[in-house]
Specification:
With 120 residues, the protein is an all-alpha fold. It has a domain at 45-119. 57% of the residues lie in helices and 0% in strands. The protein contains 2 helices and no strands. The chain has helices spanning 48-67, 71-119. The longest helix has 49 residues, at 71-119. The termini are far apart.
Length: 120
């Protein structure tokens, strides 16, 4: 067959969220982008499950490093796990506050509807 034939290079289409440079390589002031704004584009650190999984991964890496006799690396991994634990707790608090606020707003809406019915 033609297995030995070289394939031609096909360029990829550029994605729409790619920052293109204008004016001969310099960025204009309207297209200036702070590198930290879109650091985590997929939002994975806002997903409770992903944060918990990442925290557990670093805890396991710390255990492995400790068993291999590397206390410095183990401490490093534990600090990473601690960071994700704090993020995990933030997300849980945020979720609880959201649920609580929804319950309060639903309760006030139902009370307003009840008052309107009684006044009519």
């Amino acid at each position: 067959m033609n297995n030995n034939r070289r394939r031609n290079f096909r360029s990829r289409q550029q994605k729409s969220n790619f920052l293109r440079r204008r004016n001969g390589g310099s960025t204009s002031s309207s297209s200036f982008n702070n590198g930290n704004i879109n650091f985590n584009r997929n939002g994975s650190m806002n997903n409770l499950h992903n944060v918990e999984k990442t925290m557990q991964k670093f805890q396991q890496l710390a255990k492995d490093a400790q068993s291999n006799g590397d206390p410095v690396l183990a401490q490093n991994y534990l600090q990473h796990a601690d960071h994700y634990l704090r993020r995990y707790n933030e997300l849980i608090d945020k979720k609880e506050n959201y649920v609580e606020n929804n319950k309060i707003s639903e309760k006030s809406t139902s009370e307003e509807n009840l008052l309107e019915k009684n006044l009519s």
